Amino acid sequence: MTRKQTVADAFGAAASTYDSSAQAQSRAADGVVDLVMGRTLPQNPCVLEVGCGTGLLTRKLLPKVGGDWLVTDLSPAMVKAAEATTSATNATFRVMDGEHPDVPTGLFDLVVSNLAAQWFGDLGRALNQLQACLSPGGVLVLSTLGRGSFKEWRAAHEQLGLSCGVPLYPIAEELAALLPACAQVTSEQVIIGHADGHEFVDSLKRIGAGTPNSGHVPLNPGALRKVLRAMGAPVAITYDILYAVVEAQ
Ligand SMILES: C[S@@+](CC[C@H](N)C(=O)[O-])C[C@H]1O[C@@H](n2cnc3c(N)ncnc32)[C@H](O)[C@@H]1O
User: Fold this and answer.
1) What is the CB < 6 Å shell around ligand 1?
2) Ligand 1, atom 10: nearest CA belongs to which residue?
């Protein structure tokens, strides 16, 4: 099975539990909404959403900007969940790999994505593909995870000399380097509290985000117990959210 299929299956299996544990995703979606609402969009914009999940961002943003939406995700179960929870007649839902958007180029006034791009295999190539979807003057607004995300989890592994399955997410400058010079990249630290490390790991499973970095060998149960103990209780987990706004040239 490819990593992409593993990621899609993990999110699909979590479609019914996602919303109850998606606090950081909800906060990042608010950040994306604020950035979009700070722009001037055409009347009835043509909008593409990539990595919609259960439709958290869709439900917050669609009523504000209107227009015609194509709402997509890699996971068929997530697309189904988003469609079931979004009461809009101006949205079409479809399974699509956001790294390979099979949509006409130059069509969309707005391309949005909330905390999906950290799952892309080749972020730079994917960002180019998404910009190619923009109409002249169109805008891409997305959030993704930055290097400081889960730093407490990483530190607990390092303290014990164990390898951590969290990918090396980009710092803001690295994300900016993948985008045209006109792009604005900002960051926000969102801290989510959990009773202990177990609850943190469970929360990742409940949103379907438990797939480790490619090639990571999962810890044996004893090593995992040590990491969870090293984290102490309660735990505060950092989500280092990077936001990018790119206007089509
Ligand atoms: C953390 S969830 C975020 C979902 C939603 N945007 C939100 O704000 O709650 C990540 C989503 O990205 C999707 N995803 C992962 N890789 C993707 C890809 N290559 N193309 C499209 N969606 C992808 C997953 O299936 C999952 O639904």
Assistant:
1) 7-8, 11, 22, 25, 29, 50-53, 56-57, 73-75, 78, 97-99, 114-116, 119-120, 207, 209
2) 116
Q: How far is the CA of 229 from the centre of ligand 1 (A)?
A: 30
Cβ contact 163:228 at 8 Å: no
Low-confidence ranges of the chain (pLDDT < 70): none
**What top-level class would CATH report for the domain 3-147+167-189+240-247?**
alpha beta
Q: What is the pLDDT of residue 126?
A: 98
Report whether the peptide linkage leading into residue 167 is cis, meaning its omega lies within 30 degrees of zero: no
pLDDT, mean over the chain: 96
Q: Cα(240)–Cα(249) distance, rounded to whole angstroms?
A: 28
Query: Measured in whole angstroms, how far is the alpha carbon of residue 105 from the centre of its chain?
Result: 23
The reported pLDDT for the residue numbered 249 is 77
Which atom of ligand 1 has the smallest separation from the CA of 53? 27
Strand partners, 48: 70, 111
Residue 84: CB atoms within 10 A of its CB come to: 12
CA contacts within 13 A on the Cβ side of 148: 13
What is the residue whose two structure tokens read 């985008």?
179
pLDDT in tens, 133-149: 999 999 999 999 999 99
Using DSSP's 3-state secondary structure scheme, residue 156 falls into: helix
